[in-house]
Design goal:
Number of helices of chain A: 15
Oligomer: heterotrimer
Strand content of chain B: 5-15%
GO molecular function (chain A): metal ion binding; Rab geranylgeranyltransferase activity
EC number (chain A): 2.5.1.60
Helix content of chain B: 55-70%
Largest sheet of chain B: 8 strands, antiparallel
CATH class of chain A: Mainly Alpha
Chains: A mainly alpha (334), B alpha+beta (423), C alpha/beta (549)
Strand content of chain A: under 5%
Distance between the termini of chain A: 20 Å
Subunit structure (chain A): Heterodimer of an alpha and a beta subunit.
Structural class of chain A: mainly alpha
Catalytic activity (chain A): geranylgeranyl diphosphate + L-cysteinyl-[protein] = S-geranylgeranyl-L-cysteinyl-[protein] + diphosphate
Number of strands of chain B: 8
Largest interface: A-B, 67 and 61 residues
Structural class of chain B: alpha+beta
CATH architecture of chain A: Alpha/alpha barrel
CATH topology of chain A: Glycosyltransferase
Protein name (chain A): Geranylgeranyl transferase type-2 subunit beta
Number of domains of chain A: 1
Amino acid sequence: MSSELLTSLHVSYIQNLGKSTDDLAYHLTAHLRLNAIYWGLTALCIMGHPEALDREDVIRFVESCWDEKAGGFGAHPAHDAHISTTLSAIQILVTYNALERLDIPRVVKFILSLQQPSGVFAGDSFGEIDTRFTYIAINALSLLGCLDQLDKERTVDYIKQCRNFDGGFGNCIGAESHSGQVFVCVAALAILDRLDEVDSDTLGWWLAERQLPNGGLNGRPEKLEDVCYSFWVLSALSILDKVSWIDTEKLTSFILSAQVCFGSREGWIADRPGDMPDVFHTFSVLQVAKLNCLSILGYPGLVDLDPVYCMPAKIIEEKGLKQGWKALQRRQLK
Amino acid sequence: MHGVKRVRQTPEATAAAKLREQSKIEEYLALTADVLSKKASGDWSRDAFNLTTRMLQINPEFYTVWNYRRNILLRGIFPGSSSTEINDLLTEELSMTTVALKMHPKVYWIWNHRRWCLENVPDGPGTDAEGDLNGWRKSYWDRELYVVDKMLDADARNFHAWPYRRYVLASMPVARSETAELAYTTRKIESNFSNFSAWHQRTKLLSSLWGNGKLDYSKSKEEEFELVGNAMYTDPNDQSVWIYHRWLMGAGDDKEVLDREIAVIQELLDEQSDSKWCMESLVYYKRLLLKKHPSSLDGDLANECRRLLNQLQVLDPARRRRYQEIEGVNLVQGFSTCTRWAYKRSWGAEVRQCRCCWATRTYLAPQLQPLLPQLAWETGVWVVCGRGGQRGRWMREGRGRTVNIVGELDARSGSWLMWVAGV
Amino acid sequence: MVDEGAFDIIILGTGLTESIAAAALSKAGFKVAHIDRNPYYGAKEASLSFDELIQWQDTPQPGFSAFSRSSDTVAQPRTYALSLAPSLIPSTGPLIEALVASGVAKYGGFRLIERVCVYVSGAVKPVPGSKEDVFKNKEISLVDKRRLMRFLMFAAGEFEGKMELTGHEEAPFPQYLKSVFSLNDEMVNAIAYALAYCLSPSEPALPALHRLRRYLLSAGRYGANPFLVGHYGSAGEIAQGFCRTAAVGGAVYILGRDVESVSASAPRHTVRLTDFPDPLSCALLISSPAYAPPGVPRPTPVLPPPSASAPFSAASLTYPVARGIAIIDRALALGPSAVQVPAEPSEDAPTASLPPALDTAVLVFPPSSLPGGSATAAATVLLTGEGTMSCPHGKWILYLALPLPDSDSTGAPADLNPETLLKPYLDATLALATPDGEAPGPLTPLFSTFYLQHAPTHSDPESTPSQDERESAPSPAQDASAPPPAHLAPAPLPPVLALPDAGDAAALHAEAVFWAAVKLLRPDSDQDAEGAITGLWPPMEERGEDEDD
């Protein structure tokens, strides 16, 4: 168990992800590949090593995931387009400043076609709805500079209806507050400049109470802590400028203690200290969730993350999209 | 996996596992290639359908294959089938996903597929004239509720199952009564009241039952207070209970209830003097009293809150800053308890300033609101720190001290009520 | 040529302790012969059919006396499995571990106790033993709920060294609950007698807390209640299950044959049985306290290592106990059955319908709770119905037990009449029967019997050896150059233990016997060597490599 961030291990781990073809789990998670590349690339940016992956290789892979029929991106060549993987593709292209390789009008059309009469977005043509997809749509449209094409009132109206008395948000109308959904709704409202719809005192209270005595954060009342949830909660707090409402030192050490060095799987991050890192999380979220947390927490040696867009802050600033979130002051390397 | 503890393996075991893994990978990749190429060529045959079954049994997260499977049904199989045959096919789909859900209760795509199946149940078995047009649908949806019950028996907090349950309840051709569902949440809560999901479900049901008059509002509300009070006294550390209690209290318009519940919690705190949630809730409800019923207060509430907030900072240091902020924003000065207000008009706004402390309340007329950010007052300047909308925080700098001002739009008068306190 | 009569170990008596030890020793690879003079398994813990029970009562039984019964017959006598040692099995603890680790659990069926009630001024009240029980209970005031929960959390946690305990370890438990946790009388009674199963108000706090913690932590493993009861009379059937496992491991069983003589000629014992052709021989003789084989010196008593958390810290108790068994044909109204009947039938739900009435329950009478009852001891009534496979449909068996702390001595207290002592308890219990339209009025049992169980007198073979006997026991060597072959005996269990403790006590005694035997027969056994005996039970056969890896 290490109390320091093993940056070089993380970097080489991400570099090697694409080479893990002798691992069945690698193939079983093909449906998450594009998301995984986005998370990996973002992690590398946060650690200051965006060059660790070959730019042209990655862009070509993104292009190979294009679903011509639908006008969006799938997770992998020959997989169906989905709003989530489409956002990942856009985020990767934005990170590499390569949006010219994208048929923006077609993608925007695809995204807008998924909005339902109620205002919420579906994930794909089969119509699963979730506030996650609303956030994804808003994030993507904003990155593409096409937010003006969105029916904002209708969109915000649905999010408002998902707000619960505890200040949090659920994945659809009537659903229980959940920190992942809180993050997506708050970030979506932040991009739309509608944070006035958030009861930030109540939500800040609910979010702050997610912290457990070991420093980790849980996703809902009376549940176990988890690195993923820590990230969602922390991002939401950061957008609401309430990071100081939790014990950030304890959270930092919780996250560092969830870093494992174990056999060939060095550099993996488990969801909580002592647990086996699992492929899904490592491929997709955990690694970055952890780094993102540390970035927001001002951990030394990391680059700022924009918690609203979940991308390197510098890129978002350059695009003039920065919202009023606040991270902790970055500490100096000792 | 989440929650899987690490175990060390011997090198031999690892090597053997590697070999087995290789053959599994080859098999899996061949199957994937087969399915995707059939899909690309628009193959809507039974064979292709069976292939998707195999694929999904291995990897239920392969969403593209679920999509393909539905397209095969829609384009290849349903068109040539009778209603009865379609019905039988959907029955098979549902039992296949039941098996999958037992193994993978948190895979979105499986839940989605069930939804799709249920939404595609044909009319029947009879005709409209025979009166059982909904016969199949009815039995499917009844059964679906039973499946959700089972899923929630296995994991009472399953985040997919609860919204799905609401969806099922809303979709059933013959609606189940909300009182029956309320009884279900009671059972869930009785078997474990840390189950906030069940409490949450209750907030939704009760809001509806109170709204449509199916439950007597005041009687039912008292019963809820009794239920939650029992839970509170049984385990004062359980968040679910306190969050639900807060919902029950609502905006705090009923002063009698506020007073009574404050007394109940105070009594619990007397019995359990280290209860953080008692203190936290007391502060919240007492502040609510200050805010909602300022006319009839005894003078000491703000001091009590301050004392509790100080205790909380010690007891719950992780959230120390939050307690400090609450204290700083509108309690340190205790202005709400002030009765000795001096009135003056300034810049078209009515300003009340307390003579004994430094607290100020300002009412801004609606026509002044656009000016708010630029509003100069005396020699200081108000700087907007918050964002637009109905709430905001302003900071005033000047005279060597900083004050916090929280503005709130009074919905009735359309005026801004500004809470001012020094830091 | 293999001598078929030659064994490593001969065990006399098939009580639960001896049966568990036999199974463990047999599984460890020792050649075991297991002998009982009775034609049934289980000895003093046996499960008997109705007729066997009558027969058993009509034969002199050391440690039992003062039998009385209402009749000698009952309908369908063979469908009853009546237990001589009614008890509960905690869901965690030495007995359940032994049942699981040995595989014996697979042979037998078990049933969860559905309800535990305490008798309070003429009525029964449910005993709140968990957070959910406390939450749901409508009779306890809010402040009392808080106090009760605070105590339960304390008792379920690490109370060692806590401020609430320091200095009170020896205080009588009920007194302790009252003074330290401000609990009212009703709750003190429920906790002390129906949660911690204290026998009397004088039990000290520390052991009661240890017991209570084990029970509290047992809850939730197999269901809400921490206790199970075995099918077919529980203890006796379980003893038989262990014997069966021993036999699978190669042990030889000889029932219905008494020991005629034992001759010790180093290094082996030769055991002759009545009406049995060939003598048997062994290197180690293990005899239950009920056997005092002629011709050999007293055995070395084996006691489990003392431990504060041992299930029977009151092991030194020699309280006699008044016992009663009654058979009734109407359910008791102790509240609804805790077993959930599935609301909607479906192909997933079990099709067999569960008995609607309460099938297993415990009713506790705290001291002074009943006019005419004891003021110094708690009486317990264990109810088992057809769901436990121990009686026919529509019948229930009641097992009554009242410890007699005022006659704390060995031998049968001559002046005590168990029927008189237990009658008020039985009547109070029968008065709780569900009303029956066809047969109004008080319930009359179909059969009832009463008797005393007590520590054997010094003249009985199984009396606990006194201190000097213990010391002299191992060294009566007739021949100094050849010490006599080893002879062990598990220390006898007290006549009465807390309802959930008898089985765990037997399992701990068995474990002690097992290790004593291993030490004697394999003195050089290296713990680290290949095939060394490292545990009471060898690991169960692993299932194949997980395919889902």
